[in-house]
Design goal:
The chain is α/β, with parallel strands linked by helices and 469 residues long. It has helices at 3-8, 30-36, 61-70, 95-109, 123-127, 129-146, 170-184, 195-198, 224-227, 383-401, 418-434, 460-466, and strands at residues 39-42, 74-79, 114-119, 154-157, 190-192, 214-220, 250-251, 255-257, 262-267, 271-276, 282-292, 296-301, 306-313, 324-327, 334-337, 346-354, 360-372, 375-378, 380-381, 405-410, 438-441, 451-452, 457-458. 43% of the residues are buried.
């Protein structure tokens, strides 16, 4: 049966009527709409649960009032539509559930708060996309038709954090959902984000349709070991006690430390102490997306060290190039052309290998930089610079593609100490605003919550980090 026939048979849907406005949208400035989301907060754990209240939160009118009075401009409303719709055609969404969403949208719009209708936790779509494609598109056809007369401050988000088996198909599925939405909402602002749980590093994979009314989202929980420390739903749970900002040098994201038989310890904010625990051990730096446009590598150590430097292409077939055998001198910068260590077009893996059969005691790696015509890029960073680099990567992608950017989730779990949470939240909020990006804090009143539902009051330190006076 063709999809349009299935969609047309979805009965019982009530067309949305908003107290603030009921006329259809004739035009929209998507950058202006993104500004409506400038200071937003997520209603996590409520309608994203299998049933409202199952995860501890039932929405109340007082919550919307508190958000408005605190100075927020918008709400992101994660919704698990897939738990409230028929599993077989015509995939009808439960009317009582849609009435509850209407109530929430009206609570926001009557207070001049923008609101995002975000399809969340359609887990079956992530694991078995093909079996759920028709249902996914039907859900969006129903949602879009239902809210077609809503004001432009009501924004759609195609799906939260695509991951797993849908990743190779995500561009196709997002475009198909957008096509369905555009049948009834030709100009409404729609949010779409990249694979990898909306990782900014995966933005280059996102192929957007030719549609000017799109807002691009990414999520920010960097560094994960800080923001998710003690999270019970993660196995193994990241250790508690991580502070932010962490002192000392760090590997600049998106580079990762894949070293073998080697210990790397920060030495100040810009260097690492390296110990080769065995012969032919290696300091190994990996980057999923690879780094292009570089011509050479600069290395400096505090003592003479014999190294084999190997530069690998991303997804290199079996067999590695021989690498470059080099001898560093204490305190002298050594520049190695990439053509001599593997000649990769895209550098995905960089190895600095001990070229002797014996362990090498500690030495300081003071400099490790990739060089191009306009300057150099260090593989080392500190906590603040590393966090800022993530945000700048997203902002630069937005500028290059002329798309408004929305940091749709960021937050630190309450197992982290309050001082660190406030510093982290302040930094991320401030740095995103410097780059002209809107944001939505995760989340209102649960484990990451800025609001204490028991005390019926904001946690003042976190609120101050988000909405400074």
């Amino acid at each position: 049966m063709k999809l349009k026939i299935l969609l047309a048979s979805a009965l019982g849907l009530v067309v949305f009527a908003c107290n603030a406005a009921t006329t259809a949208i004739s035009s929209v400035d998507v950058f202006a709409t993104n500004k409506l989301l400038a200071k937003s907060i997520n209603f996590g754990n409520a309608l994203e649960a299998p049933t409202e209240g199952a995860w501890g939160i039932v929405l109340e009118e007082s919550y919307f009032e508190a958000i408005k009075n605190a100075g927020f401009t918008g709400i992101r409303l994660p919704i698990k539509f897939s738990s409230h719709a028929l599993a077989t055609a015509p995939f009808t969404i439960d009317k009582t559930f849609m009435d509850r969403i209407d109530w929430a949208v009206n609570q926001a719009t009557t207070r001049s708060l923008a609101i995002i209708i975000d399809m969340h936790h359609y887990d079956e779509l992530m694991t078995d996309p093909a079996a759920n494609k028709d249902r996914f598109l039907s859900l969006w056809q129903q949602i879009a038709t239902h809210f077609k007369a809503a004001p432009s401050s009501v924004v759609f988000e195609i799906h939260n954090e695509p991951n797993g088996n849908i990743e190779p198909l995500w561009n196709e599925y997002a475009a198909a959902a957008l096509k369905v939405i555009r049948e009834s909402n030709p100009t409404r602002a729609v949010i779409v984000g990249p694979n990898g749980w909306n990782s900014a590093w995966r933005l280059p994979e996102l192929k957007l349709p030719d549609d000017k009314n799109l807002i691009v989202t990414f999520h920010n929980y960097e560094p994960f070991e800080f923001t998710h420390q003690g999270a019970e739903w993660i196995s193994p749970s990241p250790a508690v006690g991580v502070v932010w900002p962490k002192a000392g040098a760090d590997i600049r994201a998106p580079w990762q430390n894949w070293s073998w038989d080697t210990t790397l310890e920060p030495s100040g904010d810009t260097a690492f102490n390296v110990t080769y625990n065995k012969g032919y051990a290696g300091a190994y730096f990996h980057r999923d997306a690879g780094a292009a446009g570089f011509s050479s590598l600069k290395i400096k150590t505090d003592q003479a060290v014999g190294l084999t430097v190997t530069c690998l292409e991303k997804n290199l077939p079996s067999g590695n190039p021989p690498g470059a055998s080099v001898q560093t001198q204490a305190g002298v910068t050594l520049e190695i052309p990439l053509v001599s260590c593997g000649n990769p077009k895209t550098l995905g893996d960089l190895m600095l290998q001990n070229n002797t059969s014996a362990a090498v005691p500690i030495f300081k790696l003071e400099q490790l930089e990739l060089v191009n015509a306009s300057g150099s890029e260090s593989l080392f960073s500190n906590a603040q610079d590393k966090a800022a680099a993530y945000l700048e990567y997203a902002a630069a992608w937005g500028r290059a593609n002329n798309r408004p950017m929305f940091m749709g989730e960021f937050g630190a779990y309450n197992k982290a100490d309050t001082v660190s949470r406030v510093k982290w939240t302040t930094f991320m909020r401030s740095e995103s605003e410097k780059r002209g990006m809107s944001w939505a804090y995760w989340e209102f009143g649960a484990g990451f919550g800025a609001y204490d539902r028991t005390a019926k009051a904001w946690r003042p330190e976190l609120l101050g980090a988000l909405i400074p006076k």
